[in-house]
Amino acid sequence: MSNQPIPLRKALASFDALWSPRIVTRVNDYDVRIAKVEGEHIWHAHDDTDEFFLVLDGELHISLREPDGERTVLLPQGTVFTVPRGTEHKPYAPSGAAILMFEPTGTPTVGDRHDEIPDHVDATTGHTLNS
Hints:
This protein is mainly beta. The protein has one domain (about 10-120): Jelly Rolls (Sandwich), CATH 2.60.120.10. It has one helix at about 10-15, and strands spanning about 20-25, 30-40, 45, 50-65, 70-75, 80-85, 90-105, 115, 125-130. The strands form 2 sheets. Strands 1, 2, 4, 5, 6, 7 and 9 form a 7-stranded mixed beta sheet that branches. Strand 1 (about 20-25) and strand 2 (about 30-40) form a beta hairpin. The longest helix has 6 residues, at about 10-15. The radius of gyration is 14 Å and the shape is globular. The mean pLDDT is about 95.
């Protein structure tokens, strides 16, 4: 990891892949990941960890399956949202977005339980940023 400040615009400009997060830094045992997203991810759940989202650009929707039923939260640029551990969720960005996520190192992008993984979703624990 870099010991210098990391401009997020430059970091985002260094890759084009969608739904394929890059690790920009680590905080203790957590990755700080950025990703470009467009279209749909998959329904998935992280059994042992919450998932934090910050929308850097664009707009992100997150559908949630909760005990009281299904709902969707809308996250415009500059908003944050945490999906509680164990909650099935599906992020999607109809017009594209750039997001920052904060989660334990080694957390798979497709969770511990998930639907079939389509080709456009990168099943990874994050890639090193090559800026």
